[in-house]
Structure formats: structure tokens, C-alpha cells
Amino acid sequence: MNLNKWPKLADLLAGSYVLGTLRGRARLRFAHMLRSRPWLAARVAEWEDTLMPYSLQEPPIAPPHSVWQGVVAELPARAVNADIASHVSWWQKLGLWRAMSAGLALALVLLLLWPAPPRMPYMAVLNNTSGQAVWMLRANAHHMALVTMRSMSLPADKSLQLWAIVPGKKPISMGLLPTHPGRTPILITPDHLDMRSVALIAVTMEPEGGSPTGQPTTAILYKADILSTHLSS
Amino acid sequence: MPEVAELEKLLQKVALADQQAFRDFYDATAAHLFPVALRILREQGRAADCLQDAFVKIWLKAGEYQVGRGAPMAWAAAIVRYQAIDELRRLPKDQPGWEDENWEQWGEREFPADPRMASEKQLLLDCLEQLPSDQRQAISQAFYRAASYDEVARFAGEALGTVKSWIRRGLLSLRDCLHHESE
Q1: Model-wide pTM > 0.90
Q2: Cβ contact A16–B168 (<8 Å)
Q3: Under CATH, what is the fold of the domain B111-182?
Q4: Do A63 and B31 touch (CB under 8 A)?
Q5: B59 and A75 in contact by Cβ < 8 A?
Q6: Distance set, CA B34 to CA B45, B56, B130, B148 (Å)
Q7: How many CA atoms lie within 13 A of B3 on its CB side?
Q8: Which sequence spans correspond to the domains of chain B?
């Protein structure tokens, strides 16, 4: 269904999603739709900004320490620059060195060395019209990370949207592109997208917040082939 | 409540995989976010697991936060809330204890110190006031505990269909009111 034509229904679903009465498979389907429809995500954000302050009015309660430790244990596999040096300096800053027991030291060594960041054998570089590289995408089957190398100026009411082009299929939105230099963390690709089947990526200029239809609405501005760093024998 | 500008700055750094910024963000927000999970899941251990998963998502999604949106706490609290709602699905139904707190009081507590949130909240409060009381109560209850239609219906002693339509009509009226009032 093209929810874009039913703004009232879209808003009702967005409200039910934030409220929590949208459950089960309908909730999963809606969460899935959100990823490829930035305009719908914007409706959800509006409901969040309205409703969530209510849930933040309880007196603060510190969570158990195990929460932070659990979070940290999940991070290295996902950090973009998971080089050991940066982890060490981070731990040093926390001053944990001195208090570290042998068991914790072993855990830390395991944490630093394993698991390694996911390999990203696919890459693509998107150039601007003067041939300067603006974005570099790296990906494996299910993860991607983007480096933005230079600023792009853009009208305030427009966004740049990235699309994956799979032969014989409709373009799949990969989200909105940042316009300032920086790197994203490693992101999970949209559920229905397997990077191995992507032939090219392309960029279109869309209304602010992304295409209202879930498909490109303007001509392609930039595109790039997906290159594999696997050596073919 | 932590400063909006400070939290937005931290989130920008988290999006660039800055772990110290993430630690600072955690220190500033975790104690405010923990009760969000606790109220829905009603048990320390489950709420702690939920908060942990939510913070991993905050790390992964920091790049999606639109700087200037002005509500980093609302954004983070929503991530915790969705995580808790997902956890609820895995719990056995009919857990005792969700009637014991008075959810009708939740709109009357202290305002959060963040003035931007306080104004959002006042707006919502005004709009809730304009709803018929059955719709207002059903929405309040669904929100407070993240209760399903079923649970709200059982609590109100009403038919499921009735409660669904209260909540849906209430949400649509809220939306109209919020748009109208904020213009």
C-alpha cells in the first residue's frame, strides 16, 4: 500500500507505533517500512517528541553496572575504527587499569582481539560532477558504512537519497546521505537488501526527509559501480 | 534532565564511533532511561537487559538522529520503549502487578526540567484534556504500561472493538489538536 496517499492512516499508524498498541506482525511490518520511508520516520519522530517526555518524568534510577559492561562487550565488533590502540586509550582514560583483576584482564584481551570488525569486501566511491570523491561506501552482505569526504551544499528543503540498484528490481532506498564530512558507524543494510546482488548505487535529490513514495522521484545525480575486493581467480 | 545541546553534541560524536562520547552520553542519560524500561517490564533484571540492548541500538543509530530535532532524550527514550515493547512479546501473558500503580496520575507529576520538553508536554496535556474521558483514559493506560488493546479492554471492562476505536479516534483527535495548537 502506498501510505503516502493516506496521510491520516499514516499518522494513526505512526501514533500507534509510538504508543505501542501496534503489535505483532503489523508492528514488524511498520518498522520495516520506516527504514525505506524517511517521510514516515519523520511522522514517527513527531509523535516521539510529543509523547516521550511523559515517560521521562519518573525519578532517575541508576541501572546496575552490568548494563554498561554488557553494552561495551557488544561494541568492538561494530566500531568503524576498531583498532586496538583506540580501545586501549579509551580504557586507560577510564582508569580501569589499576583495578583490573587477572580475569578482567583476560576478558579485556578477548574483547580487544575478538571478534574482529566485519570484513567489508564491497566498495563504491561516489564522485561529484567535478570528479571529486564525496562519499565512499563499504559493505558486506548485510552491513555497510559510509565515509563522507567533503561537504555538499543543498537547498534547505531537499535531501540526497542513496539507492541500491539490483538488476531487474525496483531501486531500494539505503537512506539519506550526510552532507558534511564524517563517518557513520557500521549500519545494518535494509532487511530485503543483499549487497551481493547490488550492481550500482545511485543518488537522487528528493524532498527533505526523502522520497515520499519510497521510489526515486527525480533523475539520478551521481552513480557508482559496486566493486568487489575479492580477487577473482 | 541533561542539556539538549550537550546531548546532541555527544550524539554527533557517537555517530563517528567516538566511544568516550558514548560513555558520557550513557552517564548522562542511563538513570533517566532505566525507569522507562522498568515501568514497562516491571522487573529489574529484564529492564537491565532491555536497557543494555537499547544502548547498543543507540550506538548503532546515533547517525540517524537529526541534529536540531531538539529532543535527544525523547529519541533515546523511544528506542528504550520500543526495545521494551519487543521484550514484552516474549513474556508470558497475565503477569500480575500491572494494576498496582495508579496510571491515571501520570499526567500530573512534575514537569521535566528541560523547558523544550515541558512545552511539548503542556501541549499534549492540553490536547488530552479535550478528549472524551474514555478515549483519554484508554490512551493514557496504553501509554503508561505499553499495554496492548487486549489489556486495556480487560482493565476497562469493555469490548476489544470499543477500546480499539477509542484509542484510534483519540489518536486522530490528538493529532489534529497538536497540529492545530502548534501552528
Answers
A1: no
A2: yes
A3: Arc Repressor Mutant, subunit A (1.10.10)
A4: yes
A5: yes
A6: 11, 14, 31, 21
A7: 5
A8: 4-89, 111-182
